């Protein structure tokens, strides 16, 4: 069965519910978890100086992104601790979350990606796309989708 599960997290209610279920699943399977957070890249203006004024420096932006990552990942670590499941933390910087998720799973040596789906159907799913769908179609690692 699965021994090392990647659990992408973003701090949303859906992400927290998924983390809870992933920890329960890992406990039943005797697996460990790598909790993952994709930090955003610093936004760059392509319209010239002063077009969009953002007072946040790249350093401050990175610091805030790291704080957010640690807060989100610590939630999963705490769930694991309570359940007796080993949880490690990993964050990568990327503006393409699905690629970051797949890269993180590969880098950590995971044999399963356990992630949420918003459950969109029909035209909204086609128009909005889905990071989960992109992971499903691009990953060579099995993906378990929780909804």
TrEMBL record:
Official protein name in the record: Universal stress protein
UspA domain boundaries: 1-147
SUPFAM superfamilies the UniProt entry points to: Adenine nucleotide alpha hydrolases-like
Pfam family, one: Usp
Similarity comment text for this entry: Belongs to the universal stress protein A family.
Alphabetized InterPro entries for the sequence: Rossmann-like_a/b/a_fold (IPR014729), Universal_stress_UspA (IPR006015), UspA (IPR006016)
Transmembrane annotation, as ranges: none
Coiled coil: none
């Amino acid at each position: 069965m699965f021994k090392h599960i990647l659990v992408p997290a973003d701090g949303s209610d859906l992400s927290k519910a998924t983390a809870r279920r992933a920890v329960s699943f890992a406990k039943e399977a005797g697996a460990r978890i790598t909790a993952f957070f994709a930090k955003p890249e610093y936004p760059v203006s392509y319209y010239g100086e002063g077009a969009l004024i953002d007072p946040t420096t790249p350093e401050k932006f990175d610091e805030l992104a790291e704080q957010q990552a640690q807060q989100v990942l610590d939630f999963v670590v705490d769930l694991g601790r309570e359940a007796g499941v080993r949880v490690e933390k990993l964050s990568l910087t990327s503006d393409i979350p699905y690629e970051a998720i797949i890269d993180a799973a590969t880098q950590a040596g995971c044999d399963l990606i356990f992630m949420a789906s918003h459950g969109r159907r029909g035209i909204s799913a086609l128009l909005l796309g889905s990071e989960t769908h992109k992971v499903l179609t691009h990953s060579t690692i099995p993906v378990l989708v929780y909804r």
